[in-house]
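INFO batch 0412 | record 1 of 1 | parsing
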Amino acid sequence: MAGVFLEAPQFPRLAKRMCDVNCPSVAISEKWFMPVSNTDVAIRDLTVGKAMDCDILDTSGIVLLRKGLVLSQDVVDGWMRRGFARVLLGVADKGSSASPPPDDQSAEAHAARLIRPYDPALMKELSQTFTRAKQAIDEIIFQLAVKEVPEMAALEAVFQTYAGAIQRDEAAVLSSAASQKVAPGKRTNSSLATRSVQMAMLGAVTASCMGLSREEIQDITTAAMLHDMALFEETLAMLQNDYTTQDERREVLFRHALLSAELFSRCHGVSDLVRVVMTQVHEQVDGRGFPRGLPGHHLNVLSRILNIVDAYLTMIEPNDSQPAFVPSDVIAYMVNHTNGGSFDRDCMKGFLNAVSIYAVGSKVELDDHRSATVLRSTRTDPLRPIIRIDDESNAIVDLRHSDHYVSRPIVEPDFPHRKRLPKAQMQAVLWKPMY
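INFO prediction complete | emitting C-alpha cells
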C-alpha cells in the first residue's frame, strides 16, 4: 500500500512529542519527597506528577504505590474516594504487599529479568483463562436473556488470575491478548467476547503501569468485560423488542453502553463506579465521543484508559467501514491524535509504556532485514523494545544496547488481513464505529 507513514525516521518525532508531554490537568511542583523511613503525611500534602523516590503505603503498611512509579492526581483522588486521609512514605516491610519486589533490585538483575522468554506455564494459564473468561461472559449473557440477576463469581476468578499474571510478567499478558484472533466479517457473540476480554487485559496492564490500585484494576477489568453486553445477540434482541424502525434500532446501538450499564443495575457484584465507567468507554476527552458527548473533566480515569484501548482494538480488527491496520501504525496514529486532543495524554503515556510503540507481540523488521517479534516494552525508550529474533536462534535482544534498530513494522503472517496505514489517513477519525 503506497504512502504509509510509519517508517523508522518518522517514529522519533511522534514518540518524543508523546513522551515529553506532562498532563495539563496536574500542577507539577519542583519539590519532591525524598525517601524517609515511614514518614506519615496527609494525602492532600502529596506532590503529584513525578516518579516517587520511595514507596507510598497505607497506615497499616500495605503498599499503595511502588517507588519509581509516577503519582498522578487520579491516583490521589482514588485513594481519597476510598477513605484514605494519611499515608506513609518510606520502605515497605517484607510481606507488606501481595507482590513484593524481587530480592535483587540491581540494574543488572532488572536487565536479566527483561531478557528472558515468557514462562510456558504462564502462557498456558493465560490461554486457559481467556477461554474461561469468554465462558463467563456467555453465562452472563444467558442469565440476562432469561431475566436472572447475573452472577459475577466467574469474572472475579478471571480477574484474580490476570492480576497475578500481571505481577509476574505483564508482557506475557499483553502477548496473550495480542495472539487472540477475531474472525473478520459479521460481528458475532464469539468475536464480541474475544474483544471484551482483550480490552480487559490491555486495560488492566495499562492501569497497572500507571500505578493504579488493585481495586481500580479490578474495576477496569469488570467494566471492559461488561460494557458491550447490550450488543450480544440475545440481549440485543431483548432490547430491540420495543423498537420497530431502523432508526430506532440504530439508536439502541448508539446507546449500547448506557443500556449495558442498565442491565446490571440490580447486580450487587457490579458497583456504581463500574457502571459509570461502562457508560463512558466511548466518550472522548475533547467532548466528541458518544453517547453523551462528555468532555474529559467529566470522565473517570478508568474510562479514559478504556477509550484508548477501545480505539486501538477497533483499528487493528476489520469492521464494516474499514480494514484492519498493523498495531504499531495504529499506536503512532493514536499518539498523533493525542497531541491533537482526542485522547487523554497521561493515559496514552501509560498505554505506550505498557505496549511500546512497536506493540508487544507484533512483528517488526530490523535494519539488517531480519524479522523479529516484540517481546517486551522497555518503557524508557519505546522505540527500542526487547525483541526475539525470528530464526533458529530465537535470540532475545535489548535494542537499547544494540547497534541494530527497528526499521519498520510488518504485516504478521497470523494476521494477513491487517494492512499498513496510509499517510493520507493520518488525520482521519478511524476509531469510531459506524452504526
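INFO post-check: The radius of gyration is 21 Å.
INFO record closed
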